[in-house]
């Protein structure tokens, strides 16, 4: 595999652009194009279908994928909860013999996540690693592993692996759902890589970055599946630009954070799919009334664009997959803000790609 920058200024930008390919690899031979059947192999499917309760453990960006996955699994009727791995170890939640603990970890080497998985194993609970690295500690120590197949990710900021983690979560959810075939969903999954390409080809993220680079802070809001994307948008922004950024559940804004909002703090509103996005438009109006600039990241299913100063569009897809597309736009905005500020994008200060201490 080519580990050079391939003509891009940074690994991060290269990896953002590798997302269509990474997602194709994640789907390959797992989704049957004709029948729509999803096949993750007998062992893994048996493990997943045997789960009455699912606990997800992860850190950072992978935790945002875990939050997304927990919501997805709950929508299939399976009680599921995401935990920050270090907190899971500090205050382990109750479990039963039908609990499955899923560790989401790009590297498979994050100490906090490994600790949480070991805690689960000590209790005799089944564990599954969703990871990018074949042969990593997580993949070796867990009973099962689901590889996201993104190829090497060199930039400290996780980009293509978040998208692939979200797609992998959808494959697990489809197995949980156990409908045998999943025609509509399979075609939405099949189309996702080219829709990511469309976002990459047509994005105006650089213009948005240019307009707001001198802001005092950046806020991100979203609801439902868009909520983890809001958190991820903020993490990416703070990680590579060193600017103050926060992500909130859209409905929480009025419970305190709204006091921070001024004309100097752009609010990125992620508004996709069907999950309550009309209510998020209401939150956007509240923000607009406080004269904060609004950047809507939207698939056009609502009229949020009417209340926005800038719009980052994404193509329409299944509500569950839209967050991947929205997140690509936010990755690009953070990248271009960091580039204009002259940050060390691939190796931000104080951070390591893989955090091997607790
Ligand atoms: C993401 O941009 C960060 N570099 C960081 O939050 C990362 O996702 C976290 O440390 C977890 O890493 P892992 O997925 O390898 O376990």
From TrEMBL:
One of its GO terms (molecular function) is glutamine-fructose-6-phosphate transaminase (isomerizing) activity. It is found in: Cytoplasm. The keyword Repeat applies. One of its GO terms (cellular component) is cytoplasm. Keywords: Aminotransferase, Cytoplasm, Glutamine amidotransferase, Repeat, Transferase. It catalyses: D-fructose 6-phosphate + L-glutamine = D-glucosamine 6-phosphate + L-glutamate. GO terms for biological process: carbohydrate metabolic process. Residues 44-182, 208-348 form the SIS domain. The active site is at 353 (for fru-6p isomerization activity). Catalyzes the first step in hexosamine metabolism, converting fructose-6P into glucosamine-6P using glutamine as a nitrogen source. This is Glutamine--fructose-6-phosphate aminotransferase [isomerizing]. It comes from Halospeciosus flavus. The chain holds residues 242 to 599 of 599 of the full protein.
